[in-house]
Amino acid sequence: MTVSRRNFLKTVGLTGAVLSLGIYIPTNAEEAEIIKAAEADSFGVEMNAWVHIDTSGKVTIFSHRAEMGQGVYQAIPQMVAEELEVNLDEVNIVFAKGDNKKYGSQITGGSSTVRGSYKNLLNLGATAREMLIQAAANKWNVPKSDCYAQAGHVFHRPTNRQFHYGELVLDANKLETPKNIILKKRSDYKLIGKPLPRQDTRLKTNGTATFGLDKEIPGMLYAMVVRNPRLRGKVKSFDDTAARKIPGVKHVVKTRMGVFSTYREGVAVVADSIWAAMQAKKVLTVEWDDSGFEHLSTADIYKRQAEALQTQEGLPFKQQGDAAGIIAQAPKKIDVVYETPYQYHSCMEPLNCIAHYQEGKLEIWGPIQAPEWIQDYISKEMNIPRENVIVNMTFLGGGFGRKAFMDYPHEASVISKAVGAPIQVVWTREDDATQGPYRPGISYRCEGVVTNGEISAFKVKLAGQNNNHWRGAPKDKPNGSASEGFLKPYFDSIKNLSIQDIPFETPIPTMWWRSVYASTNGFAYESFLDELAIEAGKDPLAFRKDYLKEDRLHLLIDKMIDVSGWKNRKKNEGYGTAITECFGSTVGQVVKVSRNTDGKLTIDRVWAVMDCGWYVNPDTIKAQVEGAIVMGLGAATMHQVTFQDGIPVDKNFYSYQLPRITDIPPIEIYIMENDADAGGVGEPGLPAFAPALTNAIFDLTGKRIRKLPFNLATV
Predict the structure, then answer these.
(1) 212-292+351-426 has which CATH code?
(2) From the CB of residue 234, how many other CB atoms can be counted at a distance below 10 Å?
(3) Start and end of every Aldehyde oxidase/xanthine dehydrogenase a/b hammerhead domain (predicted)?
């Protein structure tokens, strides 16, 4: 359900008056203000995250972020309901349209929804609660201090009189919005911090949740596209004779979609059913012009990276002390290379998008992570006023960053304009796997010197595609995420340290993937730290603790030691560890491996300890960390995107295999309790797994794995 504010207020007005509050962020202000809808209209300002309470007591709030399985559909109402003092079953949540002037940033990525808005949402619920309490006190003509809110009612302590919220909204709406509301202490929470059932579970299990593929609008046609298998190729010609003979086919048109500053061309088949479009696509013949750019293979890419690491100095990202000089003079040093592969997002729901172009106006529906980016891009590309590009978000069947991109909505919009009808473009699994953009494959040269059991020099060079170069970032500057995943306290404790980025480009489009660069950096940095610990003759966790001089990190490491039985390791058991940080949260993992009776390597258990500061729902955290570990297991041991002659080889799950339930080891998740600001949850659980696993394998076998993916069965 997506509606405009005006229409929403008309609709809820049918049930009587409403108390309608929202968050207004003044220009250049550090803090948001809570204002009433009437105030927003009279002042001519836009407010977001409205909470509406009608005369029945029903609470409705807008979700300005996408729900792609990560739990914002639960977290947002759980936060508002806590301070508002209502039961979760009295809260209804509605997806907002794309409008960053009204809602602020609506980009769902970087594990940002809770950590970026939790204080405002708590304040929103608390403000509404205080206004309702004041309204009740006024009606009873008693001091406000004698009243309290609970379960959607306001009670008078001395007499136990009560009003339902719905009985108070008219009076509350006449009050001034209070300032400087005091929020609850965490110890007083009734909902936050509790493993409450998710609000979207019922919708997703009974089939009523509307994902992009479920959405339909009147008069909609269906499109499938034969796209160039190489990014920069052109359509030379096409023969649609056989395609047009398929019953239901209406149009066959040349199309293109923007991929950063380039374009991918293709030919679209438009039909009155998805089946007809699929069959016509199979018999469409297209000749491509792929001249003028390199057709690289995977071997070429990693050969060039290896050569660059050995022959070039990179752009300095972090330089302190004289790491290079110490390494050059050292009689003994560690000098190793780690490789990480290209990966695709493999979302459960392949890409899809509905677009309806009308003269000067475009409306879009679909699984979308970044509505404002789509509005900006399509407005420019199709010369449509930005306010006339309307973006409606549905549920997402997984995103991992891929559905924050603008290419698939742009393509749908171009086709709709060409055929003069609303259309839904549906991608096949093969389309999804072979079109990119991908997580970049990166190689790391790690050099270090250990003297008297201490790190005296630490140097890392990385060679891999910089995602920001596709977006116009200067190529004479290092990748700003060159140390993402690497804990910042290391910069204080390792005196001679150098991190360099070697610019590296290919025609293969790359972009964000779950945990972004931490997913590759984490493997290299945490594996290298393990090698340094072994060289120093020290316990790997104790070694890290010596260099991570923060009480909060020491508590996390102590928890890892305690839950995993680290100090009670036995013979013929391999234990490995890794600690990574990204998006405001730190995750430490311990992996235990052994040989089974057949001599095959087995992952016996994974322990993960997350410090994400303030949090909403522990079950959501555990689900996200478990999912991240499963995704990390696949990326480390099962799948990669490979290229031959510039074309992706791995087109579906028969070659790009994912973990099955029988592959998943027991996983234990622990959450640190503290009063720190909220950190991210959806992404930080992934980076530590691969290095913890390979460090465990080294502990058991003495074999150091430095290239991903690897086959567990052959170790």
Answers:
(1) 3.30.365.10
(2) 16
(3) 206-292
Element at 443 (helix H, strand E): strand 442-451
**411, 362 Cβ separation under 8 angstroms:** no
Judge whether 122 and 415 are in contact, CB under 8 Å.
Answer: no
* DSSP SS3 for 98: coil
CA 144, CA 162: separation in Å to the nearest integer? Answer: 13
Q: What is the pLDDT of residues 654-670, one digit of tens each?
A: 999 999 999 999 999 99
At a CB cut-off of 8 Å and minimum separation 6, what does 347 contact? Answer: 396, 397, 398, 399, 400, 402, 403, 432
How far apart CA 543 and CA 566 sit, in angstroms, is 14
Tell me which residue of 15, 12, 89 sits closest to 50, measured CA to CA.
12
CA distance 368 to 406: 9
Tell which CATH classification among 3.30.565.10, 3.30.590.10, 3.30.365.10, 3.40.50.1000 matches the domain 5-200: 3.30.365.10
Average pLDDT, stretch 157-177? 94
Give the span between the Cα atoms of 446 and 497, in whole angstroms.
11
Distance CA 80, CA 123 (A): 8
- Which helix (H) or strand (E) segment holds residue 77: the answer is helix 72-84
pTM here is 0.94
Task: Say if CB 166 and CB 57 are below 8 A apart.
Answer: yes
CATH architecture of 312-342+439-714: 2-Layer Sandwich (3.30)
Tokens of 213: 């593929």
What one-character-per-residue DSSP string does 355-395 give? EEEETTEEEEEE--S-HHHHHHHHHHHHT--GGGEEEEE-B
Write the burial class of residue 711 (CB in 10 Å: 0-12 exposed, 13-18 middle, 19+ buried).
exposed
Secondary structure class of 570 (helix, strand, coil)? coil
Report d(CA 320, CA 439) in Å as an integer: 30
pLDDT at 6 over 70: no
